[in-house]
Design a protein that fits this description.
By secondary structure, this protein is an all-alpha fold. Helices cover 60% and strands 0% of the residues. The protein has helices at 4-45, 56-69, 76-90, 95-106, 117-120, 128-135, 137-145, 155-163, 184-199, 210-219, 227-239. Bound molecules: fe (ii) ion.
């Protein structure tokens, strides 16, 4: 027979578990908002740093339009741009070029504007036709960006949009490029993009922890991802303590 103290003890344990779950969700939310804030700061600080053929307010509007299509991936573009920027800085790329790259990374998924809702929002496994439609966002994005004048200033953004799903072993898309034939900046965004996809909650699965996400990226070093980019990414995440705590007063935030 169950004693009263057992049921009280059981309720106590389930209350504790519920509080732990809620705390975990709040920590995740805090982390996401901190990242969005930092990304917005980068966007703002880039306003006066250089001329870009795509006005920043237009980029911002496009990203908002994209994010509003799918609430579950809201903030994805901003986080990927921020991770990409951190990697670029870690690799010693000059600040002006980093700012330019940040804008390119923000627009990496812009082609998803051309993917129908029935594919973009589908939570079950995509069939072949739907998968082809989904992967066409790389080509559509490149087509959108490559038409912006002056063309030479849009080469990087176009390459990032087109090639951020390529893999080092040639198993990616849309062209199955191998190794260093994948444009360098697309190789950076590939790491940032995969990490964000793994660590973000979806309607059908919970995201893994940032530490596990980094380990998974490291596991795919050389096969999927550029080893040099992976090492830089690993360093960045170690220094940032795997984004634990969303500590806005961290010396590494707003540096
Ligand atoms: Fe993408």
């Amino acid at each position: 027979m169950m004693r009263k103290s057992d049921s009280v003890g059981g309720k106590y344990v389930s209350d504790i578990q519920q509080l732990k779950d809620e705390l975990e969700q709040l920590e995740k939310r805090n982390r996401d908002l901190t990242l969005l804030l930092e990304s917005a700061f980068e966007l703002k600080s880039g306003l006066t740093s250089m001329d870009h053929p795509f006005p920043i307010n237009v980029i911002h509007s496009l990203v908002i339009a994209l994010d509003s299509r799918d609430p579950y991936t809201s903030g994805h573009s901003s986080r990927v741009a921020l991770y990409s920027l951190w990697i670029a800085r870690e690799l010693g790329i000059g600040e002006e070029e980093c700012k330019h790259f940040y804008r390119s990374a923000l627009m990496h998924d812009i082609g998803k504007i051309g993917v129908p809702d029935r594919v973009l929002l589908k939570t079950e496994r995509l069939n072949d036709e739907e998968f082809q439609s989904m992967i066409s966002h790389t080509i559509i994005g490149a087509r959108i960006l490559s038409n912006v004048e002056p063309l030479e200033r849009m080469i990087q953004a176009t390459e990032v949009a087109k090639y951020h799903h390529e893999k080092m072993d040639g198993s990616g898309y849309p062209e199955g490029l191998v190794g260093e034939s994948i444009p360098f900046y697309a190789r950076i965004v590939a790491v940032a993009d995969a990490f964000d996809a793994m660590t973000t909650d979806r309607p059908y699965s919970l995201g893994i922890s940032c530490q596990d996400g980094v380990e998974e990226i490291v596991r795919c070093k050389g096969s999927h991802f550029d080893p040099v980019v992976v090492e830089a990414f690993k360093n960045v995440m170690q220094v940032r303590n795997y984004l634990k705590g969303g500590d806005i007063d961290s010396p590494y935030i707003f540096e």
